[in-house]
Amino acid sequence: MIAVAAKKRLGAFDLDAAFEAPPGVTALFGKSGSGKTSLINAVAGLMRPDAGRIEIDGAVLFDSSARIDVPVHRRRVGYVFQDARLFPHMNVAKNLAYGGRHDRDRVIDLLGLDGLLDRRPAALSGGERQRVAIGRALMSDPRILLMDEPLSALDAERKSEILPWLERLRDEAGLPILYVSHAASEVARLATTVVVMEAGGVKRAGAVAEVLSDPAAVGMIGAQEAGAVVRARIAGLDRIDGLTELALAGGRIVLPGRLGGIGTHLRLRISAQDVILSRDKPQGLSALNILSAKVTAIDEGPEGVAVGLLCGADRLLARVTRRSARALRLEPGQQVWAIVKASAVAPDDVSGAT
Predict the structure, then answer these.
(1) ABC transporter domain location, by residue (predicted)?
(2) Average pLDDT across the chain, whole number
(3) What is the pTM of this model?
(4) What is the bridge-based pairing of β-strands 77-80 and 144-148?
(5) pLDDT given for residue 185 in this prediction
């Protein structure tokens, strides 16, 4: 369990944030300047709050009322920055050893570093450098891993390269992770809990599937970034068209490409702008993904109308124009049809289920 509460005056900026989160990956999500990095710096001990309390897995790292402030070197915190910050004159093996010697073989195997040990940072790709940086942090035997936008300096290809390793880290490392990001796609793919920050405070916190599918959160997340997270199981493979059939709680959809073997469980992010609504079941469309849904909530914002949907036990999110919302006469409890274009779900929005 992670419990963080921190207040700090930083010039004209006030940090006043508090949240609790269960084990797994907790994403601190928000725009630049919202206070995400300041908050994890407080956890690391790099910034001393004016007031608050920080507890990780039963260990109190800071408590202003009890006058507890554990020194940085005793907090057992692993920190991965935006840039890898590796020593250029050392090879990978020596960079790892600088972090410590805890469970070296397991760390190397977990992050696939065995073939890189003799190489220096200049000979590594951006994704490989970040994997080494993560490994160095793990070698210190941390009680928590802090990651400050570790993919922000990488291009799309390198992000795709490292994301599966981050999933493996989440699933197998067995330690809590605080992950800072302003990319909803990363949060949807990796996080178990999301903490939405704005102007130094926490605006929303909860399970990633609940927060990202909430129409009221679209204004905080951003209309272009909004989208729901659902879990699915591979139910069939169409070898003629190269499609994978997925079973969701509320029906079946197909996506392009072979996404795994039959029975494999996946996690999908479906962007709100890629969901089309209809009052009547569509006929004569090329779209293959048509799901029966019930409207659960409606939130009108400056960039349109966000519509919460329930498809079986899955929550989806749609974003429509005000004109469309009026034409459909949308209201909570209404039965509609949600249409998802097969090609709309990007490859990086499909990952292994947690």
Answers:
(1) 1-224
(2) 90
(3) 0.88
(4) parallel
(5) 85
Report the alpha-carbon distance of residue 33 to residue 279 in Å, rounded: 41
Q: What is the mean pLDDT of the segment spanning 254-278? A: 89
Predicted pLDDT of residue 354: 67
Q: Average pLDDT of 151-172?
A: 87
* Domain 2-212 architecture: 3-Layer(aba) Sandwich (3.40)
b/e 208-237 (16+ beta carbons within 10 angstroms → b): bbebbbbbebbbbbeeebbbbbbbbbbbeb
What whole-number percentage of the chain has pLDDT above 70?
99
**Strand duo 289-301 + 304-311: pairing:** antiparallel
Token pair of 74 as six digits: 């005793």
Reported as a single tens digit per residue, the pLDDT across 73-108 is: 999 999 999 888 999 999 999 999 998 888 899 999
Q: What is the CATH number of domain 227-352?
A: 2.40.50.100
For the chain, where do the domains classified as CATH 3.40.50.300 start and end? 2-212
